[in-house]
Amino acid sequence: MTAKRLCLGTLVCLIVSPAFAQDQPRVIPLWPNGAPGFESRRNDAEIAKDYYIRNINNPSLTVYLPPKDKANGAAVVICPGGGHRLLVFKAEGEDPGRYLAGLGVAAFVLKYRLPREEGSPYSLEKHPREDGLRAMRLVRNRAQEFGVDPNRIGIMGFSAGGEVVSWVSYTPNDGDANASDPIDRQSARPNFVIQIYPGPLGIPATVTPDAPSAFVLAANDDACCSGPTVKLLQAYRDAKAPVEAHIFAQGGHGFNMGYRSKLDSLKGWPQRLADWLSDNGFLKARQ
């Protein structure tokens, strides 16, 4: 009897373990030897506690790939918020990553450097943008490996992560054709932009008519970020560039994916994003 139970237990382990293994997302450093100029800090451990991660010195992408039979070739780089002091990694990184993977979209959650963290050596004007640009280039460079269409790569941001999105999307983002690193030769221009209550930094006064298609969303009573959201919407409208906007009457700031909200409108906002992605052909199966 004991032997039979042991055998059965072993069989269960053999069956279950791969499922757990597949559930563990892969983490890819943006630079193999560490961020340029800060290579000596790449082994400094991150600090993860409850809902957040901080002390990021080796910026990286956490990869959430959809099942192969569901993958449609679209991809999104996700930039969590946290005021550039920490990253709200679970609610604004892992949760949207898993949601998008469920839609067949490859998701890459960016851990970018945090200039406002106490004692940080990083510059707000330089390093988060540098990480965002590199993330877009890395995904595009390795598109075939990830099963991604290099012409269907978007970027998504929450709050301070939305500022990273703006810096990447609305400032020069061409690749360097002469770069020794092939990743840096790639364009970092997103094919579409998703801004969820984005912060004010980097929101452009104007955009060009060929600006990436945008989905923008915020609560009207968000003192921080409803204004930047409306400003971005107006810039798109003035340029006659493609944009969809959702301004909810209430909800404040930081409602993440709406999972914990008591408001039905906020609980349902991810479906609005899924509808927009579908209507714009980003969920169409790759040919």
Summarize the structure.
The chain is α/β, with parallel strands linked by helices and 287 residues long.
Keywords:
8 helices, 287 residues, eight-stranded mixed sheet, 33% helix, globular, two-stranded antiparallel ribbon, alpha/beta
Mean pLDDT: 93
* Rg over CA atoms: 20 Å
Residue stretches low in confidence (pLDDT < 50, at least 5 long) are 1-22
Which class best fits the helix and strand makeup?
alpha/beta
What portion of residues is helical? 25-40%
Specify the number of helices. 8
Silhouette: globular
Major β-sheet annotation: 8 strands, mixed
Helix-strand pattern: HEEEEEHEHHEHEEHEHH
Q: Note the beta-strand portion.
A: 15-25%
Spatial order of strands in the largest sheet: 1-4-6-5-7-8-9-10
Instruction: Report the span from N to C terminus.
Output: 54 Å
The count of strands amounts to: 10
